[in-house]
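Newbie here. two chains, one complex. Structure please?
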Amino acid sequence: MQTNYQTMPQTGALTQTRNKVLKNTYALLSMTLLFSALMAGVSMAVNPPAFTGLVTSIVAMLVMWFVLPRTANSGAGVLVVFGITGLLGFGLGPLLNAYLNMANGAQLIMTSLGGTGIIFLALSAYALTTKRDFSFMGGMLMVGMIVVVLAALANIFLQMPALSMTISAVVILLMSGFILYDTSRIVNGGETNYIMATIGLYLSIYNIFVSLLQLLGIASGDD
Amino acid sequence: MDWMKIGAATFLVAMLVFLLPRAKHMLKNSPKAGAGDWQAVLIPLALVVGLVVLLMMAV
């Protein structure tokens, strides 16, 4: 009986912590997505050269690898997340402008945006309601990422449209897996830092959007 | 080969260097899937594939 009285408040506190991480993660994710969209809009208006996307991605990744882990437990981490998402959003400008120059470019962008929203909301709702632990997927997802990076590296030199399409399709599947994995880690207490949780979910959404846009571009015959 | 290709290749190689030790660690330390776990993943992923195919046919 004594054990029950001791564990009940602990379980309650644990649930409270998880709910707090979840609430903070979704609040920060919403704000960073809006900021990212704003920066993409600024970039579209400025219309920087095509290599901007590559440069901002490299800088964002370097910040993510070397600065974010050192600041994730402080308030500065929030600013770093805004910096990373702002950079990635700004890097989307030239790509979005290229699509807007196509006949049905605006439709492709809106379809990709809507598709990404449906995938993210549906998978998040699924992971939150089932409360299943998807942490067993971690190793497989990382191996999948390595295979995709190797294929993308080969395609820089091979320039095969079929391989490019396959890479985009696999990235959508992998990122969908990461949404399940990351959300279940928050729900099951594996991730207690909302800054790290936000950046993981943001990257999944970003990659699904870009890959879906590429697939839709190929499907419409304009890419 | 233009410098953008070199830049992209360098970026991807750096990603590999960063990802490899993490992948090894996660493969060693990830818990094993239980009964029905893979089914619980494959069904939503199949629905994602269905949605993407639907969107590709719609544009």
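Moderator note: The interface with chain A takes residues 4-5, 7-9, 11-16, 18-20, 22-23, 26-28, 30-34, 37, 40-41, 44-45, 47-49, 51-52, 55-59 of chain B (CB under 8 Å). The two ends of chain B are 34 Å apart (CA to CA). Thread marked as resolved.
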